[in-house]
Each structure stands twice: as structure tokens, then as C-alpha cells.
Fold:
Amino acid sequence: MHLSTATRSVRGSAIRDLLALTARPEVISLAGGLPAAELMPRARIAEAAAKALTDPRSVQYGETAGLPALRAVLAAHETGRCGREVADVVVTTGSQQALDLVARALLDAGDDVVVEEPAYVGALQVFQAAGARLHPVGLDADGMRVDDLERHLRDGLRPRLVHTVASFHNPRGVTLSAPRRVRLAELAERYGFVVVEDDPYGLLAFDGAPPVPVAAHSDRVVRLGSASKVLAPALRVGWLSGPPEVLAAVELLKQCTDLCTSSLTQAVAAELVADAAWFDAHLAGVRDATAARARAFTAAVAEHLPGARCSVPTGGMFCWLDLPGVDTTALLPRALEAGVGFVPGSAFAVAEPAPSSLRCCYASHPEGVVDEAVRRLARAAT
Amino acid sequence: MHLSTATRSVRGSAIRDLLALTARPEVISLAGGLPAAELMPRARIAEAAAKALTDPRSVQYGETAGLPALRAVLAAHETGRCGREVADVVVTTGSQQALDLVARALLDAGDDVVVEEPAYVGALQVFQAAGARLHPVGLDADGMRVDDLERHLRDGLRPRLVHTVASFHNPRGVTLSAPRRVRLAELAERYGFVVVEDDPYGLLAFDGAPPVPVAAHSDRVVRLGSASKVLAPALRVGWLSGPPEVLAAVELLKQCTDLCTSSLTQAVAAELVADAAWFDAHLAGVRDATAARARAFTAAVAEHLPGARCSVPTGGMFCWLDLPGVDTTALLPRALEAGVGFVPGSAFAVAEPAPSSLRCCYASHPEGVVDEAVRRLARAAT
Structure:
């Protein structure tokens, strides 16, 4: 059977493949980017679903761009986040679909795209499928090395898109500093590229103050948001805001892609986000619980893996560990045997494998389990 | 802003644009392909959702290929339909996503694809986005003119895919005859193409006996199914079966597209389809109600539009009317003024506009409303 160039260009997600291994009940998985199911508001979702289902429109096809009530409340939210009016959003089937549709809307095969090194694997897959030429730019404790990006631009690189997980990076755990956000926006204006600000974790800022978006500083930013980390992945509700012509192109392509996102799960999301008092309290609960897990993780690393370098979590779901002298790909089978799963850093590599690094998701388990996971990891590593 | 070739290749759906016009409360819309919301089992969906939400897995990410329980029950269903073992299905976010992913998995820009004339607009959009070269083959009362297809093949056409809505065609209302199904399968084997058997309406056979699928006769068929017309569009549950390498490619591309379909709506669909006694009774109810609406439609056409030619509905949701001497695109604004909406036949054209034809969906309204809609159409047309 002849398969398309796109199919042959996409590297399967090592992480999704790993999930099967780490799903064994005796393994504590720090591998998946799974928000904690027990922190998701199942009772409130059931209540909102029952209420939505009293209306026949909840089971019907809906507008491709999304349920008007949800679009309105999300646009108001984004306006608050960006400190300037965000007139409209398009709702997507998770923010992964937003990313895919933005790539399909803006990229032709051979176009240049800047990605972070290491990168969110789902973004690499999207750009591989689009046939883009990837140009990695490294990260440090302040996020993307915007100075390195600027050097590439001065040297003649003219990317169509620059993709960044600016807040609480997956997999590196770092956040783009405020001055770098301003600079990145300036570069977008000067060199004519579009920034894709992929922001599923921003609302999980442990101090309760999400970073000011890159989109606050330029019109050349497409911002992607998601309900998956703050309500539930099973709603499959994501959204994007940005230049009107990008939104129009995404809406057109969404017609061919899945016609519309579920009217039912959109009604649930609208109900929950519009109930501001409830939503703020819920968010605070998720944030505080996740912060406690992050503290448990870093404390356990300091105690049991004293030689490790560990990113400092200030939000989101991930820590990036470096175990000097350890090959983490070789470590993984031993770790699984010891009852703990993680993702080797090289799974996120664009051009530069990180053989001694690994990504751990601390968000999926309560503190005691997180601590036990790190103990097991330490046993396997020594 | 530079937009991609794909974006510039897709023609917006005239039908989706029409929905705004026909949504005015004084207009009876026969335009949308909307199943009747009042026939959808809202109470049963609410019950199944409440039950699913007692399990934390219902709100979490799930496997890309779909919820195992749903895949199993759908594979068993397909096995029954095809009369031979269908080992596996991949669940998609509606069957529109299945179509899009099959195209992305198998097509490169410039590949030849055979479509029906007139065609399902969502399929045309998918193939336009893929950059395919479209080759239309006409339909008659027995569905696709497979003899015409064969002539093209003998003349040297080597399509990668042949797309067909073989049962209760959208928009033409006709069904591919049993001998033509066998012949189409033989041609797929001989000439090495893949048949995409797009089958959202098969279970709505008014006599309760869905046509034997094309996939019963060859391994070179990808079959697409949908819960939208038999349960509810808002579940966004579709599926595909076919050659294992196609399913594997689709699963890989689905990782980049939306990671997974909603665990919650999949659990609801699994619960409802697995309850065979309930599902059969529910299906019979939808089928009978839809058949009554179809009879009301054709009776009203015979009475009020005596000059019209009308397809004979035996299942599904659509009638295709021809009003000799009438330009249906010019008729539409007058019809909307008279309080009825439809889709002009030319909206479905690939190469051959059908200026005096129109598509009517009889499934969305009770018999009395359908009758009134045809009266209004007759008033506008004369």
C-alpha cells in the first residue's frame, strides 16, 4: 500500500508508545503528560452535561467556529490575559487540533519553522506532517534563547512560524522571561513571521499569576489555549486567537477536518468557565495541589538523587532532570523494572539529543506517590 | 498574511454558509444535512454520561486509536455488516475526520482521485486540501456509473482512491446496486486503487436491511462509519475499518491531529451500541420516523410540484429534485422569502453544474412541517 509523504515524514510519538509500558499497575508513571484525573471536576461536569442535555441543540451539529456562548466567554478570558481586546476565538478539538490547523493554514512543504530544542513532540509531528524544515533554537532557565533566534534571523533565516511553549515549557519546565517575550514580539514584527504561542499550562502558574502572553505585545501572534489541563482532556476543547485571516483559514480547514467540535462538551466547558467564582476556586485548587506535587518531586530529587540537576518548577506539569553520566534511554528498562516510568530526554530532541536528561510529570500523582517514584528512580540509577 | 496552498485550494462549503440564512425562525430549512434532534436519545445519553463519569478514566486522555470497549463493539458490528471478520476499527472525531485522515495518509499533491458527480461537499473539500486531481464519475438511479469508471480505467486513469457514498447517497439519494458493488470491488483489485466507502447513512435503510457493504467483496476498501445519524452528532464519534497499514497510518496522523477522541463521548457511544436490544429498538424508531418523513416529502412533491422529478428515497436523509426549466440558484432567495430553504444542486458539482436541481433534507422535521415546506417551495417556484 502506497502511503503519503506526510505519513512517512511523521515520527511516531515515543511518549504515546511508552504509555502502554507504563500503564502496568505496578509502575508509577511520570512519563505521560497526564493531568491528575482526581482533580478534574467530574461531578460538576456530570451536572453541566445533564443540564446541557435538556436542550436539543446539545446533541446536534454546531457552528464550525464553535458554540457562541463558549467563544464569548473564552474571548473575554483572553482579553483579560492579554490586557487588550481579543475580539474572537475559534474553538478546536483540543489545542492539538488548533496547532495542526494553524500549520495546515499557513505552511507549504519546504517552509522554514523555528521550534524549541527540546520540543513538544506533538508540535514536531505537526510540522513534520506539513513538510516543514525545522530550525531548533535552544532554551535556558529563561526559556527560548531569543538572542540565538535573532542571530539566525540576522544570518538570513526567514521562518514562516516560530513555535513556543512560552509558559511552563513541555518538556523543559522553564518559562520565557518578560523581556524575551517583548523581544520575540518585536522580531515577529520586524521579520514578518508568526509566533505560535502554545499555552496549555499558563493557568497553572503556582503563584496564581499567569505570565503576560507574548500576544500582549504583537498582532503577529496566534495563541493556543486548552481546557485539558484545567478542566478535563475528555472535553476535547481547545481554542485559538490571532489575526482574523488566520482564524478564517482555520475555520475553513476545520470544515474538512471534523465539521465542528462536540456541542455537548462545548456547552459543558462554557457553563464551567462562565461560572467565574466556581472556576477560580477550582483553578486555585488544581494549582495548589499541583504545586504541592512539584515541591514533593524536587524535595525527593534533592534527597534521593543528589547528583541530579533539576529545573525549578513554577507552574505546569513537568520537571527536566539531568543525571550527569547516565544514559537515560538505557536507564528506562531498569527503571520500569524498579516500578517507575519517565521519558528519556532524547524523545524530545530536534537535532541535539540530550542523552543524560529525562522528563518527569509530577502532576499525575499525590505527593507520597511522587516521592516513592523518585526513590525508585534513584534505586534504578545507582 | 501568506496562506498555504491547501487553504487556497479548499472551496468553502456553500451549505455551511447557507445554514446561517436558513437558521431564521420563519424559514423551514431543508438545506442542512441535520438529523432530527428530537429523535436523538438525549435522556439515554445523559444517563450513560452520568454512569461513565463515575470512572476517572472518562475525563482523561485515552488511546489514540479509541476506547477499547468501543472499538470492540464497533468491530463486531462491522463484522456482522460485512459478513466476514473485521478485526479492528480506529475511532475518529466523526467520520469526517476519518475521511480527512485517510486522505492525508494515502494522498500526495497531484494524485488522482475519483469522486461522484454530484458529490458530498465535505469529501471534495478534503481532496482539495490534499491537492488531489479530481475525476468525477456520474450517478444514475443505481448509484455510481461503475461502467463509466471502468471506461476511464481502461483509458489509463490510475486513481489512488475512489470515493463513494454507496448507500443513500448525499446529495443524490440513490444507492449503489449489488452487482455494481461487486464490480467496483473487482476493479479495485485489478487496478490497485482503494475504495473509500463513506457510509454514514447505511443503518437508515427504511426496510431495516442495510445494503451489503462494498467492503464485503474486497480487502481494498476503507469503510467509514458514523454515530452522528443514528445516535447524535455531538458525540463526534466516527470510525474506519480497512487494511491494517491504512489503520496504522491513520492512527499515527491522528496523534498530530487531535491526540484522541473524547473518552467521555466514546464511553457513551460504547454503552449505547453495546446495549443491543435498546440500540435495535432505537434504530427502528429513527428509521420508521425518517421513512414517514420521506413519504410525506415525496407525496407533497407529487401534489404540489407535479412537474418535478424526484429521487425515490429508500433510506438516508436526502431527496434530489429536478425542476425542469428552473434555475434553482436564482430560486433560492425567492424560496427563503417564502419561508423555505434548500441547497441548489450546483453546490455539489465537481465539473458539471446541475442548474435545475436541488437537494432537500426531509429528515429534520415532522411530516406536517415537511409538507408545508414543499408547499412553500411550490409557491416560490411558480
